[in-house]
């Protein structure tokens, strides 16, 4: 594409060949990426202005020398073999896609780089064109983000463990006092002790939820092929839903290859949520799944009371529950975990409901490999 | 019930948790003596008879918490399994930590069981009575 573009703007005719070469040279020189041309044996043939700036060398110090001088000594071994293999494969690719590449400036300081490679044949000789990008700022931001994520997870983990210990102590003590004074205490004192224990139990449930939320995505991924219909039927069998509630599958359920366990947890959470918040003794949950290329769109629909649109964002937040605390057992974290799991797998979740019309439908996408 | 000459060495720095174990023993009428150590190094001193502590009669069954300063449960296990005279000691872990990494680390140090400290109630009594069953049906190294 670039070549075609250049052909249009370049002077034509034999006499203009020098002018053409000049424009190419100026484009290379002006490139915002550092550009290097390196021979099959690792000798630097060409550099542009950005390479000089990035590495702190004058081009006279680079041309004709080995490209090894631009990387720390500990990374130099094996570079020749890597270069040979790359030239043999002769296709464009990013260098070290699976790891960080470190480059070294003239003053010996090191910095992270991203390198794109492309083989090019000049005068019958194969060489490599490398585009070098200094990614110090990006790498720093990524480290910063990783650190703050780790901090957060560690905080939630420590907080819930460290907070749970004294809480368990409180629950024990309340129970013992209750046992020890059962025959002699006024009924109001016993009632208050029971309340104390109920509050401790609720706090424990909240902390368990916090811990569960922090741990989402920290277990390893296990890809397997399975029939989603079968998986959901097995899941329902283990849920012990109250009598009167039925779960049905809507149409054909696809067989997919994906990370099964978290998908199962997401569906379980949505089914239990639908039943827990149902306002009648009997109800129906309908689950559908439709393949859309590299993902599957699941729907979990109930015939419960519905959720007011103004609450649709709220329900995915941590510790939010729309039910009165004593009416429905729950720590308000289920949907927050569902959302986090879905988004960590690159999907999205939405809710559709418009009371007074009955029912709520949750729709989420989940990655699935395409079958050959 | 004291079918065997056994001592439970309870390693825990939370006195309510210690009281919970004592209370469960008394509720279940278990008369096995309990010796309490506040951390790993105190537990080792009991087992070795150092620090002017009388050496515990073997066999001792160790009931071990994990988070205790200064010497935590994992460090205690490390030391215990490295000591030729103590390496066969039967250890049950009783902890708040549900972290898979803690569980793995403990089983790698050959613990006989890993129990989570629960809210009070039946499940805690079940755990303690399981322990009693364990030492009643097993033969120990003496």
Detailed description of the structure:
The complex is a heterodimer of chains A (372) and B (142). Chain A is an alpha+beta fold and 372 residues long. Chain A contains ten helices and 13 strands. In chain A, strands 1, 2, 3, 4, 5 and 6 form a six-stranded antiparallel beta sheet that branches. In chain A, strand 1 and strand 2 form a beta hairpin. In chain A, helix 6 runs antiparallel to helix 7, helix 8 crosses helix 9 and helix 9 runs antiparallel to helix 10. Chain A is elongated and about 100 Å long. Chain B has 142 residues and is an alpha/beta fold. Chain B has a single domain, classed as Response regulator (Rossmann fold, 3-Layer(aba) Sandwich), CATH 3.40.50.2300. Chain B has five helices and five strands, in the order E-H-E-H-E-H-E-H-E-H. A five-stranded parallel beta sheet of chain B has the order 2-1-3-4-5. In chain B, helix 4 links the parallel strand 4 and strand 5. In chain B, helix 1 packs across helix 5. Chain B is globular, with a radius of gyration of 14 Å. At the A-B interface, helix 6 and helix 7 of A face helix 1 of B.
Describe the secondary-structure layout.
The complex is a heterodimer of chains A (372) and B (142).
Chain A: H1 2-9, H2 17-30, E1 34-39, E2 44-47, H3 49-55, H4 59-62, H5 79-89, E3 93-95, E4 101-104, E5 110-122, E6 125-134, H6 136-181, H7 187-215, E7 223-227, H8 228-239, E8 245-249, E9 255-259, H9 260-276, E10 283-292, E11 295-302, H10 334-344, E12 349-352, E13 360-367
Helix pairs in contact in A: 6-7, 8-9, 9-10
Chain B: E1 7-11, H1 15-27, E2 34-37, H2 40-48, E3 60-64, H3 73-81, E4 90-95, H4 100-108, E5 113-116, H5 122-137
Parallel strand pairs in B: 1-2, 1-3, 3-4, 4-5
